[in-house]
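[#protein-structures] MJ: dropping Serine/threonine protein kinase here for a structure pass
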Amino acid sequence: MNYTVTEVLEEERTWSIYRAHHRYLNRKVQVVVVQSPNKEVSNRLKEVAARLFKLQHPYIATLLDFVEIGNILYFIYQDVEGQPLASLLKSKVFSLQEVQTIVLQLLHALSHAHQLGLVHGALSPEYILLDRWGNIKILHFGYIARLLQAGEARHPEIYAYVAPELVQHNVADKRSDIYSLGAILYHLLTSKAPVDEERLDILKLRQTLPPPSSVSARVPGFFDAIVQKCMAENPALRYSGVEELEDELIKEWNLWLRAESNDEESHSKSLLIGFWTLVALAVAASAWVIVQELFFGEISRPLEEATLQERNEVKAVDEGNADTKEIGDQTEKPITAAKEEELQLTDKIEEEFGKESNTTLLNATQLQAHLLVDNLVISRQGGLVEHKIKAVNLNTLQALSDIEVEVRYLDNTGEVIDAVKVVFEELPPGGKAEQLISRELPQEAKVEVRAVKAILHAKGF
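AK: finished. structure tokens for Serine/threonine protein kinase:
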């Protein structure tokens, strides 16, 4: 192998994790080395590796290569920097906004994996990294659970979050991940692990956890029922899928937020700002969405402000002054195509809703606080990729319309192959919409999405 180990990250009985450097490609990676004398387990792990190559998501560490030498398996991942959630839980108390952000990101990552038939099975704070922006990366998807099932892994920090059916019966499905997510949510809310790591001998006799709101007064009561349903011992009593959990979490959060804002004693703009901040963090997880702020920095503004200066610019261009023009003491460049399109959209809004309507044109950066967009790959057959663009209006008080989302297709070097525009005509408060796209692409092509602009309405339609 063409890798030189630079750091030992973790060493267990049956696996080790190293940071390494490719000798010729000048690339840092993480190498997971799994040694198992059990041929059946090795075969299952190879099946997992084949599926992991299809797992492309901003919240999940990307598998770059897989190598088998004798009875040793090597999983080679992109190098991921960040702090383990387990370490952070020991040193800080997460705000409710931070908790909601982490859980939303976990839900989107798990939704993508479950659609590909992949279950993590051993999801725990040990295997969730947070970068400096507060975005997650899930590590070790699938194969740790296989080792647990085979009895070849002993890791107390994992067992504290593992579903009972995996411990007791060596089986796991997507509902096992929901259990683990509930256990992580409990720890985030209460700053207490769901099972005392010093008493893991009673793990199979799961204790009845006290409701999160009884452990910490800051926790809204609606979390009690959500955690209880996630962590039901019987998998049939849990949420049927992460989408159902996501819907209930968003609904209950916004109901609570409305109740708080209606209470004169707790009514404050800072609470609303805090909520939109958490949504912005969730949406900003994808690297491209973060970078786009560098390219789309124009400030959105209320449409009722007439943008007289911009209209003067259009007039100047129409008169043939396409180079530069003087405005007061400043020299302005001619209007761009993007600005002209924005003005056309302004005219459309004024024509439809009137100049006095309380509407706001949001640009890409501002839109992060109101809209969550995600891409889910449904299938790959040869060069045909079928994927779904999902848009969620996380604002239960205001509607969105004319939502423009850009979809980019990248090759394995990161170069843009093609780009298309997807438009959602309207999203009522708390509404969702989806569009299915089929595209002929190279085998290793990736899909990235970002919201470009939308109109925010003061009220629902």
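MJ: nice. The chain has four domains: 3-78, 83-285, 304-356, 364-457.
AK: one more thing. The chain has a mean pLDDT of 76.
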